[in-house]
Amino acid sequence: MFFRQLSTKDATLSYLFGCATCHVAVAVDPVLGDEDWFIREAQKQDVKITHVIDTHVHADHYSGGRSLAAASGARYCLHESNAGRVKYDFEPLRDGRVIDVGNVVVSVIHTPGHTPDSVCLKVTDKRRGDAPWFVLTGDTMFVGAIGRPDLAGKEREMAGQLFDTLHAKLLTLAPEMELYPGHTSGSVCGAGISGKPASTLAFEKRWNPMLSMNRDAFVNALTSDIPPRPAEMDRMVAANLGL
């Protein structure tokens, strides 16, 4: 398996990974303007991008997902809850969906809380073994921080969903699982995000302060320290919805 992480000027982390043996790849959370990077990297690896996945409808940057999918002939994917919400066609992802990318297996985990449509992606390299290797957590969990819960306008309700999502889904994964988030420090998508672009679930359980709290304390802490909203948030969301 090959794996590439791209850090952008907006403190967004995007991903390209796949199976070089079978010449196929997946792109995750590309930013508008970075499409050529993905196409060049795919050409270097001699792979075809078959799926472009946005882990949710982004509010902090303009997505390059649809334009990359169009340029590469890939399927553009979002969580199924966006049906009727966005103004374009997409391939719906549901919880438990498995996407085969050659010897790489991508399993979709619906993780509402940051947004209702958020997903994480659990990735297995079958040539390495049957155990999942890493999880792309989007804006659900960062290194040292948790995604902001207020973008849907129901911050306490969404914060409670985030707590349930973390403890019922992500924290039940193997502790040695590597974690690759959707942002690094400098992003407004969470408070206190580390500059480190990767972690493990075991490290986060030990050092991420939000993960040692009970539900009430978690909700109170997450809703009391919310960064300012992005200046162009409404415009970005509208563009990413295709309005």
Which key terms come to mind for this protein?
single chain; 243 residues; alpha/beta; Metallo-beta-lactamase, Chain A; 6-stranded mixed β-sheet; 6 helices; 25% helix
* Biggest beta sheet summary: 6 strands, mixed
The CATH class turns out to be Alpha Beta
Q: What's the multimeric state?
A: single chain
The whole-number mean of residue pLDDT values reads 96
Give the beta-strand count: 14
Number of discrete domains: 1
Instruction: Briefly note the structural class of the backbone.
Output: alpha/beta
Number of helices: 6
* Name given to the CATH homologous superfamily: Ribonuclease Z/Hydroxyacylglutathione hydrolase-like
Radius of gyration: 17 Å
Q: Give the ordered list of helices and strands.
A: EEEHEHEEEEEEEEHEEHHH
Look up the CATH topology.
Metallo-beta-lactamase, Chain A
- Main sheet: which strands, in order across? 1-2-3-4-5-6
Distance between the termini: 37 Å
Q: Please state the second-level CATH architecture.
A: 4-Layer Sandwich
Proportion of helical residues? 25-40%
In one word, what is the shape? globular
Q: pLDDT below 50 for ≥5 consecutive residues: which ranges?
A: none
Strand content: 25-35%
